[in-house]
Structures are given as C-alpha cells and as structure tokens.
Amino acid sequence: MIKCEILVRDTTFLAGFSFSGPFPQSFPSEAVNVQQLLENRKSDFLPTVNTDIVFSPYYVCETLATYFACYEVSEGAAIPEGMVTFKLPGHTYARVTCTNKTITDGYDAIFDWIQTNGHKQLNGACSIEIFYKKDTEQGKAEILIPVE
C-alpha cells in the first residue's frame, strides 16, 4: 500500500535545466531527456551540491507543460553556465513515496488521497517529483502536489 501524507516545505533554491512543450505529446520523453542533460553536467556543480537528489518541479496547463531537472543549491551560489536558477516557494504539499517503477501508481494514489481527504490542489503552484536514485527501478521517488 502506498502511504500519502501532508508535508510543509520551505523555500528551496534550485539550479538545472528545463523543457517546455506540448502536453501530453512531449512527455514523459522530454522529462527523461532533461534529467539526462542534468546528469551529464553534474560534475559542473561545486562539491557542496548534493547531486544524488534530483528535484523536478513542473507546471502543466491544458496543452503545455514545463518540467525542470535540478539540484538544490544555496541562495546566490555559483551556477554552471547555461543552467537556470530559481527560487521555488514553500508550500503545503500532499506527498506520496513510491519508486521510479511505481510512479504511475503513486500519482493515482495521491490524487485519490487528495480528493478523499478533502484537500484541493493549489492552482498556480508547481508540483514536484523528487528522485533519490534515478539509476534503478527500485530507487526511491516522491511526488509532491501543492494543496490548500
């Protein structure tokens, strides 16, 4: 059984790459591509940056999605050339923990849980996928959906 819960996250500073394109046609293939691009450039980050955890905030509207693959950085840190950096505001999230292999089941579970427990997805805020080990199907993944 997949467990869902409420989590409050503070503001996070992120740096990495993004892709914006038609939804759903471009996904998940472009999400995988942008994550691979980040993986290929992880040695460009300072040694103080934890490159074992990939943060992938995303925003989806009817026909367009923007998806990021980033590492958490310190505010004002030097960012490798060609990457974007931004501040992801803190929010209250519904969170589910799953694996890379069961991420689809994780999405089903979290949206059911949000509805069943009377929460409402916060419009205009990014949802986040967090990957702890991208190189294995059993690697831990989390899905965070902003709620009010």
UniProtKB/TrEMBL annotation:
SUPFAM superfamilies: Probable bacterial effector-binding domain. Residues 2-148 form the AraC effector-binding domain. It holds the Pfam family Cass2. This is Putative transcriptional regulator YdeE. It comes from the Bacteria. Signal peptide: none annotated.
